[in-house]
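User: Can you predict the 3D structure for this chain?
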Amino acid sequence: MAWKTMNFIKAQFISFYLTYSTIVASFSIYNLISNGYSLLWIGVGLTSLPISLLIGYWMIRQTTPRTGSKLPLIYGTGLVGLGLVLFPVTGGPQSFDIPHLLAVLGFGFFLAYIYWYSTLGRKPSPAIEVGNVMPSFAAVDGNGNVFSTDFFEGKPALYLFFRGNWCPLCIAQIKEVVAAYKRLIDAGIEVALISPQPEKETRKLARKFDIPFHFLTDKNNKAAKILGIEAPSGLPFGLQVLGYDSDTVLPTVIAVDKEGKIILSDQTDNYRMRPEPETFLEAFGV
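Assistant: Here is the predicted structure, written as structure tokens:
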């Protein structure tokens, strides 16, 4: 219950933070255009604009499923911006005013994003430890057909659990797996991409990539609960209007050999840190 409550708070935070950083960055640019060059407003912008640009880039390009854990470039830019606001190089002492408050809040929210929001607070699930037999579960494809792990009996398999089409890092991760599909298929490895998202979103994803992978929906997070990787109340606030359920899944990659034993279990604790494809390819010996 405590973890669900924390996830709920995080879901509100990320939506608020993205809105805040976008508004403050825009306000800073407006002041610079309207009033001319100002180190004060440049500093305010540097505490909010970079993270807005980065996440906007993720949403549009969806090119990488991993970053530095602390985003050092944005961290440094934010510190410079905070310094320009709180310790001006010209003009003498200044009172603490709205720009100072905006800068302090902007950098403070960034620290919360890095050290608190980005970490998932998960504990490794004993159900999917390396060496265990992969637990049996069922899911459905985009057409509502039931899929079971029994379908992979006697075959090596890769299971990628992702949060949904709304998550740009998840889509970037899928793109990497898709880029390696020839090696996976040639080695006889079955690939299942599984999310608790609505079936219509699963159909969109399958049409987008059009490759012989299994695109599946985990209705009501049943499989995630069996595997111990569910993330109750983990959906960023506001995405519910697009049809997504508030409960989602922790990003997880599981590799299983042809005997059904788990040979790799990546249970990242930072949603911005996903395994390189070579990690699971090496586990399969491909």
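The two ends are 42 Å apart (CA to CA). The chain has ten helices and nine strands.
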